Amino acid sequence: MVEVQNKTSLIDRIAWNIVFPVIALALIGLYAIYVAATNDTSHIGTPTRAVIMQGLWYLISIAIVIFVMQFDAEQLFRIAPYIYGIGIVLLIAVLFFYNRSVAADTGAKSWFKLGPLTFQPSEIMKPAFILMLARVVKDHNEKYGHTIKSDWLLIGKVIAWLAPVAVLLKLQNDFGTMLVFFAIVGGVILVSGISWKIIIPLYGTVIVLGALVITMVVTAGGRAFLSHFFQAYQFARIDSWLSPATDTGSSAYQLWQSMQAIGSGQIFGNGFGKISVYVPVRGSDMVYSVIGETFGFVGSVAVILIYLYLIIQMVKIAFDTRNAFYSYISTGVIMMILFHVFENIGMSIDLLPLTGIPLPFISQGGSALIGNMIGIGMILSMKFHNKDYMFSTAGDF
């Protein structure tokens, strides 16, 4: 039976502690995009057009969030394989129908072109993969419980579902996005109940391998070996990360300009809308440089604190649900957003190598925004479904 909810109860079931920080980040994003567009119309368009287009993406994303919220845990569990399958089909399709001009500029075959718009299917694949991964972990734990043997079996299942995505992203030459999926897997494995006797050596091995790769990059023999797996521009990004001052006119130009812009803001910034340092792709990948230059250290830290508040609130909702499937979903979404924030801000200030990873809810672009908002919609559904109502099924799941 459909239970009729009054307006007050409907409002109470919305997690406003999630909604408000997302709105704050969206407003910061519109400001940053406007400022970026006033200084670089060649990449973003006129300020008015840039803000209107991003505003339309926000409206579309809000509609998607409202739609996603209608699905409870049981329904999300059922549709997970279908959503994952659609994502795989899109990742395959983009290998044949990718945007040639974007591929020529970036080397990545990861964008569709739909009239005047471009669209990156891997961004939609992120929440689809989170949903499927949560289903796999929940289903496995219910059937097998936790033993060393079953835990290794679960890791094998996770790798099996990750492998097609990783291969397709490799074919698209999109290593940055692949790292996001690795981060999602790493987070979900941590909360899946797998024994620490497996997790500690497993994660230790990953850390050692990462350090080994970085060490090999700076040696001639190691770089020659890694050239079979990485492209020349990826080596250039690591070189610029390790020594940004050595080639400020070429491979390290974007990073160097971002550091100059953020540094020029000093403590309190240069003032609302006042930027003087040119930074390539300032509206999307390097949007944090706008915040640092105009609002300084104080404004930059404030943005980080908003993200921290959002993450904390998502963690609280995950604990309040007392639902394992939702917990795995929320962990995946948290890791997705956290990795985006960490990598984007880190690359803007030379803590991490450059990648084409946008800043959630702030960077210009519709694909990443929709992918992140789908994740927010799944988080919001956890509180929204605290009783039976339309689209919800009766009983515990």
Explain what the structure shows.
- With 397 residues, the chain is mostly helical.
- Helices cover 71% and strands 2% of the residues.
- The chain has 16 helices and 2 strands.
- The chain has helices at 7-12, 16-39, 41-44, 47-69, 73-93, 100-106, 121-144, 148-172, 175-191, 196-217, 220-226, 232-242, 253-264, 288-321, 324-348, 367-384, and strands at 112-114, 117-119.
- It has a two-stranded antiparallel ribbon.
- Strand 1 (112-114) and strand 2 form a beta hairpin.
- Helix 2 runs antiparallel to helix 4 and helix 10 (196-217) packs across helix 11 (220-226).
- The radius of gyration is 22 Å and the shape is globular.
- The two termini are 18 Å apart.
- The relative contact order is 0.16.
Structural class: mainly alpha
- N-to-C span: 18 Å
By DSSP (H or I, 4+ residues per run), the number of helices equals 16
Order of strands, widest sheet: 1-2
Radius of gyration, in angstroms, nearest whole number: 22 Å
Helix and strand layout, with pairings?
Layout: H1 7-12, H2 16-39, H3 41-44, H4 47-69, H5 73-93, H6 100-106, E1 112-114, E2 117-119, H7 121-144, H8 148-172, H9 175-191, H10 196-217, H11 220-226, H12 232-242, H13 253-264, H14 288-321, H15 324-348, H16 367-384
Summarize the structure.
With 397 residues, the chain is mainly α. It contains 16 helices and two strands.
Keywords for this structure?
single chain; 397 residues; mainly alpha; two-stranded antiparallel ribbon; 2 strands; 71% helix; 2% strand; globular; disordered N terminus
